[in-house]
C-alpha cells in the first residue's frame, strides 16, 4: 500500500512511519519545507499548495497534524491557532483526496469529542459533548467533508492519551513522579482514556488495511481507568510513591479552561469499533502499557 502521511515528524507520526515501513508499506511524508529526501513531498496548507504528483498511485492519506494542546495557555488567539492548525490542513487534504480519487482518508481527531462523560461509558455512537475540545473536534472532523462527499472511506481517529517512552502524557508525568511530586488530579475519579503508542500505531495500520473500518474510530485501551488508578499504576512503574493530590480548585486557578478540560474532565471511552472489527490489542491493561513505556 502506498500511503501519504501529514504530521509524520510528531510523536505518533514518527512511530507510524517506521511501523508501516516494517510492514512493507510505501510511505511518503508531507513536509512544510523544501523536500530533502526521496520520500518527502512539499506542501503549504495555508496556500493549499501540494507538490504535483504527490498523490499518484496513492492508496490512502493519513492526517496527523495539529498544534500541541497543552503547549501554551488557551487564550482566544491560541484557541484560534489550535483550530486553524487542524481544520485548514484537513480541508486541503480532503480536497486533494477528492480530486485525485484516493480511496481512503484517515484523519486525526480526539476523544475530546465526547466532552466530560463522568463515569458513563461511551462508544463511537455517542453524541458530541460540551466544551472547547468538543467544539474543536467537531470542526476538525467536519473538515473531511470533501473526501466523504467524493466517496472516499473516511476514518476519524479519535485518539486518547498516548503512553509513549518519549513525550506524550508520560513526558509530563514521569519527571514529576521521579521527583516525588506525582499525585492524583482533583478527586481522581475522572476516567483517563489511555492508549499505548504501540496500539495507537497498530490501530491506525489496522484501519488502513481493513476496509470494514470507517467513520469515527476510538483509539483507546480496552480497559478504562480513573485518574487515581492511572496515578497508582504509574507510581508502581517508576518505583515511586504517589504524593499529595492536586486539588481541583488549584488546577482551575492555575490552568483555567485548559486545566478543567484536560485534567478534570473524565472520558470513559470504549474502543467499540476496533473490538468489533477484530483488532488485537498489544496492551490490554494500563499497567502493561506503562511498564512497557517506562522500561523502553
UniProtKB/TrEMBL annotation:
DUF1731 domain: residues covered: 246-292
Q: Name one Pfam family in it.
A: DUF1731
Q: Which InterPro entries match?
A: DUF1731 (IPR013549), Epimerase_deHydtase (IPR001509), NAD(P)-bd_dom_sf (IPR036291), SDR39U1 (IPR010099)
Taxonomic superkingdom: Bacteria
Question: PANTHER family this protein is in?
Answer: EPIMERASE FAMILY PROTEIN SDR39U1, SUGAR NUCLEOTIDE EPIMERASE RELATED
Protein family: Belongs to the NAD(P)-dependent epimerase/dehydratase family. SDR39U1 subfamily.
Q: What is the recorded name of this protein?
A: Epimerase
Amino acid at each position: 500500500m502506498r500511503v501519504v502521511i501529514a504530521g509524520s515528524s510528531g510523536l505518533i507520526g514518527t512511530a507510524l512511519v517506521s511501523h508501516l515501513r516494517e510492514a512493507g508499506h510505501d510511505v511518503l511524508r508531507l513536509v512544510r519545507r523544501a523536500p530533502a529526501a526521496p520520500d518527502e513531498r512539499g506542501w503549504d496548507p495555508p496556500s493549499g499548495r501540494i507538490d504535483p504528483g504527490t498523490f499518484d498511485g496513492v492508496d490512502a492519506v493519513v492526517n496527523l497534524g495539529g498544534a500541541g494542546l497543552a503547549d501554551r495557555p488557551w487564550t482566544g488567539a491560541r484557541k484560534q491557532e489550535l483550530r486553524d492548525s487542524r481544520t485548514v490542513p484537513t480541508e486541503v487534504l480532503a480536497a486533494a483526496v477528492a480530486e485525485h480519487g484516493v480511496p481512503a482518508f484517515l484523519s486525526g481527531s480526539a476523544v475530546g469529542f465526547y466532552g466530560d462523560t463522568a463515569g458513563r461509558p461511551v462508544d463511537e455512537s455517542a453524541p458530541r459533548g460540551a466544551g472547547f475540545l468538543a467544539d474543536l473536534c467537531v470542526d476538525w472532523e467536519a473538515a473531511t467533508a470533501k473526501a466523504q462527499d467524493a466517496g472516499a472511506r473516511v476514518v476519524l481517529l479519535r485518539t486518547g492519551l498516548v503512553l509513549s517512552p518519549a513525550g506524550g502524557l508520560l513526558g509530563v508525568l514521569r519527571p514529576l513522579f521521579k521527583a516525588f511530586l506525582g499525585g492524583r488530579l482533583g478527586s481522581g475519579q475522572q476516567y483517563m482514556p489511555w492508549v499505548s503508542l504501540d496500539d495507537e500505531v497498530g490501530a491506525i495500520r489496522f484501519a488502513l488495511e481493513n476496509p470494514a473500518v470507517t467513520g469515527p474510530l476510538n483509539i483507546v485501551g480496552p480497559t478504562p481507568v480513573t485518574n487515581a488508578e492511572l496515578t497508582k499504576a504509574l507510581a508502581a512503574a517508576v518505583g515511586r510513591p504517589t504524593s499529595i493530590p492536586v486539588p481541583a480548585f488549584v488546577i482551575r486557578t492555575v490552568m483555567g479552561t485548559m486545566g478543567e478540560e484536560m485534567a478534570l474532565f473524565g472520558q470513559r471511552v470504549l474502543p467499540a469499533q476496533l473490538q468489533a472489527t477484530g483488532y488485537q490489542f498489544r496492551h490490554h491493561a494500563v499497567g502493561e502499557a506503562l511498564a512497557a513505556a517506562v522500561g523502553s
